[in-house]
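G., the chain you wanted modeled:
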Amino acid sequence: LAAGKSSVCFGYAEPFTMKTESLSTIASRNENEIQIFIRPTYCENKPDRTGLLFLPVDLNGRTTLAIVPLKVLKETQPVKMIGRNLPGQRFVPEQVVSCMQDDLFTPHEALLPCILNSLKFFNVMSIAGNMKTVVEKTIQYAKQREQFGQPIGKFQAIAHMLVDMKIDLDSTILYGHWLAWHLDQRDGNAAELTREANLANIFASTAYANAVNTSIQVMGGYGYMKESHMERYARDARMTCFFPEEGYAQKMAVARQFNMVSMV
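Predicted structure as tokens:
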């Protein structure tokens, strides 16, 4: 994965859950092999040759993730999706596959928080990259678009908007580096790491949405046109506010650590 030779997708069965008592995909140990009894599952449509399926399974009453190459799965079927640019999904029918012990993540109670924190980090850094493009395109437009005989970027109101966007961009990048340091150290408890991941994700997704809204305001009607790409960034920014968890749920999780709200 690190070398870019493989791509990964997560598999989920209905109803999707990481709770062991209701997990539908079961694994059992048979000498040196692990037998995985896959229930009907959906996953992202990755290439068979390089795709890897991360599948939540119940192994002896504990939740873990099995790594299954897509090329060993039988009779998978593509699922039609609405939209031209969506990668689509594939349906994996019920079947039994074998894997080795090394193809399983070590069962651990903190498995799901670890996955979610990593996904939040990926979300923050992808936001930083896309937000950088948004800010650069907006500044470039403000330099080229003229009104009343001068570039609109020279007007104080527009200049202040651009500076605020730049501040949020740099803060998002630094927040991402701060979260990366925490994930690399892993010297704190799981609750502390989850709190930092939630705070970084909330800040970055909010800053990204604000940057796109400001860009469309600076560009005016041009910001709604496909050639500006801002209309696509507006859709993407909205999605980051609830990936991999809804933003308000992350705020409530942080607030609970402050003993400000109940668990309900």
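Residues 15-21, 82-86 have pLDDT under 50 and may be disordered.

Shout if anything looks off.
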